[in-house]
Design goal:
Helix content: 10-25%
Strand order of the largest sheet: 1-3-4-5-2
Number of strands: 17
Mean pLDDT: 90
Number of helices: 5
Distance between the termini: 39 Å
């Protein structure tokens, strides 16, 4: 069967980038014989054919989309549609965590130049996948909104550790920290919520205030406590809660934290989708919150 020269509707409806959702959808055939009209594993949607170049004793590759039919574990190959071949395809030399989709996309972007538009990757577990026409804009950027000190912020620290573990690899996301440094507000007349912050000023949990004119830097709970403790005092207030703050505002999808557990969950602030976690949430809860946010954004473009 001859190979078609153009993509079928399946490929035409996709974005220019082709990156299989799961590497179990990618098969490898190390043969010079035609793979068409053969039987193929039922999960295989893409096929990488490795051919030896008799002139240079090196391998070159062809990458196909597989159209198959039938039932059962092995199915009939109806036809193959060429995605890339020859000088368009190279194999990355090092083994990578191929569940880390942002890593593979960014690596492929750096390798694609000239005629090269497709990069084959080998995983640490020897599985294989590829990225065709890598598109860095397909990686979802999520802002981490928080305050320091302590530094790094707790939310930033947790997300750094989780990201390093690879738990977000399949989600195809990257994180950008956007934090407010509360040290900019330090002063003898500034009141912060908690003395454990190590900031220079006065604190709601340890100081007695007797004069007007203080600047309270905190959230609505801080404001409520201030007015309960010092109802007679006049003061100014800077709200640092991302839900209402004018100084900690998202500019894209985001995750932030709040001291009110009832505020936890998916939100929309300034027309950007986000998620709120409680100050005391665990790593597991934060990971689940990010997963829920990504699924909402991906499913409601």
């Amino acid at each position: 069967m001859t190979y078609l020269k153009e993509f079928n509707n399946h490929l035409k409806q996709q974005l220019p980038m082709i990156f299989p959702d799961e590497y179990k959808r990618v098969g490898v055939k190390r043969s010079t014989n035609s793979a068409a009209e053969e039987l193929i594993y039922f999960l295989t949607d893409y096929l990488i054919v490795e051919k030896e170049n008799s002139d240079t004793y090196s391998a070159n590759y062809e990458v196909y989309y597989v159209k198959k039919s039938g039932e059962g574990l092995l199915r009939k190959v109806e036809y193959l549609e060429l995605i890339a071949s020859g000088e368009e395809v190279i194999k990355y030399d090092e083994e990578l965590n191929i569940r880390n989709r942002p890593l593979l996309i960014e690596t492929a972007v750096n390798l694609c130049s000239g005629k090269v538009n497709t990069i084959i990757f080998i995983g640490l577990d020897k599985h294989v996948t590829f990225v065709h026409k890598p598109d860095p804009s397909s990686i979802l950027n999520i802002e981490v909104l928080d305050v320091v000190p302590p530094e790094p912020s707790w939310l930033s620290l947790v997300i750094r550790r989780l990201a390093a573990s690879g738990i977000f690899g399949d989600l195809q996301v990257r994180f950008a920290e956007k934090v407010i440094d509360l040290r900019h507000f330090e002063g003898i007349n500034t009141v912060f919520p908690c003395s454990a912050s190590g900031l220079k000023g006065k604190f709601l949990d340890s100081d007695i205030l007797s004069e007007n004119g203080h600047l309270l830097v905190g959230c609505e709970i801080s404001k409520t406590i201030f007015e309960m403790r010092f109802p007679e005092l006049e003061y100014s207030f800077r709200n640092i809660c991302p839900l209402k703050s004018e100084i900690l505002v998202p500019s894209g999808p985001f995750i932030t934290r709040c001291c009110k557990s009832e505020k936890s969950g998916l939100v929309n602030i300034s027309s950007f989708e986000g998620v709120i976690v409680h100050w005391g949430d665990s790593e597991y809860q934060i990971a689940e919150a990010i997963k829920n946010l990504v699924h909402k954004i991906r499913n409601n473009p």
